[in-house]
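hey so i finally got around to running both of the ones u sent me last week. sorry it took forever, my laptop kept dying halfway thru and i had to restart like 3 times lol. anyway pasting them below in the order u listed, first the sequence line then the C-alpha cell line for each. didnt double check formatting much so if smth looks off just lmk and ill redo it

first one:
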Amino acid sequence: MPPVQRPALALILRLAAAFVLATLIMLVKYTAGTGVRFGEILFWRTSLTLPILGTWLVAQGQLKRLQTKRMPAHLRRAALGTVGMTMTFGAPILLPLAESTTLSFTTPIFAVILSAALLAERVGPWRWTAVAAGFIGILIIAQPGHTHMPLLGTAVGLGAAIMVALISIQIRDLSRTDEPIAIVFWFSAWSTLVFTVTLPLFFTAHTIAQWLLLLAIGVLGCIAQLLLTASLRFGQVASVIVMDYSSLIWATIYGWLVWDQLPTAATWLGAPLIVGAGGLIAFREHRLAKAISPISPVASE
C-alpha cells in the first residue's frame, strides 16, 4: 500500500533536513581542513549509521523493519548514492561553501534535460526557459576563464547535481514499498562495504577533536538521510524542493563564521537565476501532477 501523503509534515521534514545537511557539509569541509583524509571521512559518514539504527531497532524489538524484497534496487541505489555522496561532499572541499551549495541547486535543471534525453519526456517552453536561465546563472557564478571557481570543483559540483537527479527517482520508488529507515540502513550497509575496502589507503592517527568531528559527521549524516527519505515518503519531490533552497542561508552563515568568506558579487547575481529556475521547474512539475519527479538537490547525502 502506498504511504499516506502528508504535505505539511513533508515540508517540515525537508526544512529540518536542509539545516542538518548544511551543518554536515560544513563539518566535512572543516574536518578535511584539519588534515583528515577525504576517503576516511566518507567511511565514518556511512559506517556510523549502521550501529545507530541497528541498536535502536534492536532496543525497540523492530529489527523486522529492515526486511525488504527489493535488495537489487537497494544495491543500485547504493551504487549511485556512493558516487553522488563522494561528489556532494567533495564539492565544498574544493569550492567556497556558498558557491558549492548554489551549484547543488542545479539538480532540477539537469533533471529536465535527463527526462527529455533518457525518458523521451515532452518538455514545454516554460521548463526549457528555466533550463536556459539556470545555465546563465551557472556561467555568471563560474566565470569561465577566471580563477574564482576552480574548474575541477565546478565540475564536481555539477556532477553531484546530476547524480542526485537520478538518485531521487530511486528513493521515491523505494519509498513506495520500504520504510525510510530500511532505505537508509541498506544504503549505509552497501556503501560502508565499499569504503571499508579503501579505508587502509586513507587512515591516519587523529586527535581527540578530530575523532569528535568524525563522530558528529556520522550522527548528522544518519539524521539527514532519515529526514530526507521521510520527506520523500510523505510528499511529492516537486512540492518539498522549495525547502532545500534554505540551505543556502545556512551555508552563507557558516562560510562567514567559520572561514570568514562571503559569497562574491557573481554568486549573488547568479544564485537567484538558479534558484528561480529550480522553483519554476518545481512549480511546473507540481502543475503537471507528476508522481515521480527527479528534482531533489540533496537526496544523495
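and the second one:
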Amino acid sequence: MGRAVSACKYTPRTAALIPAITLTAWLGDAQHALARVHVFSPAEARIEAHALASYALGQPRVWLVAHGDETLCAEWQQRLDAALARRLAGEPIAQIVGVREFYGRDFKVTAAVLIPRPETEHLLEAALTQWPAGARVALLDVGTGSGCVAISLALERPEAEVTALDISPDALAVAQENARALGAALRFVEGDLFAPLGGQRFAGIVSNPPYIAAADPHLAQGDLRFEPALALASGVEGLDTIRRLIAAAPDHLVSGGWLMLEHGYNQGTAVRALLTQRGFVQVETQHDLAGLDRLSLGRWA
C-alpha cells in the first residue's frame, strides 16, 4: 500500500483542469476500463480497481467503501489515474502496488523478481508435508527470487536451517528485505545453482526454476513481459535449468534427501524421466488445484 495522502484542498487552477467525480464513480470507471482492456471478469476488475485505489491513496479497502461518496480533488484523481494508466498499459499490479500475498503473508515485489503465484504454494506445501513441525533439517531453496518459498519455510518450520540462493543480487536484496519485514531467520547466498555451496548437503532442495521454452509466445504477453527473463525461460524446451538441477543435486543431498521442483503443466513426464535416470527413487508428480502437473519430486537413496 502506498503512503496515505494528505487531505485534499481544491484550488481554482486544479479544479478547472480535472472534472470532479466521487471515489465510487472513479472505481466504477476503473472497473469498466480494466474489464475491457484485460478481459477481466467483473469480480477481477473490482478487486484490481480497489487495489489500485488503496495503493494510490494509501488507504485500506474499508476506507474506500466508507468514503465512496466523497468528491475527489485534483491531487487524488491524478494519483488514481496514474496508477490506473500503468495497469492499463500492462504493468503487473503486483509491481505497481509493490506487494503480493503468498501463503497468507505479504511479500515485496519489484521488477527484479518473479511475482509470487498461488501455484507455487503447492511446492511449499509439499515441503511442509515432508518435513513436519519440529524437524531439525537443512533445507535449500534454489532460485529464491522474492524469497517467498524460503521465507515461508523458515517461518513455518523455525527449527529448520533454511538457505536461500539466487544468481541475481537484486533478487537477493528483495528477498532479504522480505525476511527482515516478516521476521524470518535464514541464510542468503548469491551464486549459480550449487556453485557457492561447496560440499554442503541438505535434507531437502526445493526450487521454482525457469521452465518456459525460450520461444514461447507467452513471454511477450501479460505480466511476463515485465518479469526477469532470467527467471522465466530456460532453453528450447524450457528444461535446461531443470536438467542442471537434477544432475547436480545428489552432490548436495544427504542420503534419503528430497529434491522438489516446480515445472510447467506439460513437463511432468519429462521431469520424472530425468529424476529416474539420475537415480532418484519414489519419483512422482503432484497436481495443482486445476488438476495439472505442477511439481515433481524424488528421493536420493
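quick thing i noticed on the 2nd:
The longest helix spans residues 23-38.
anyway thats it, ttyl
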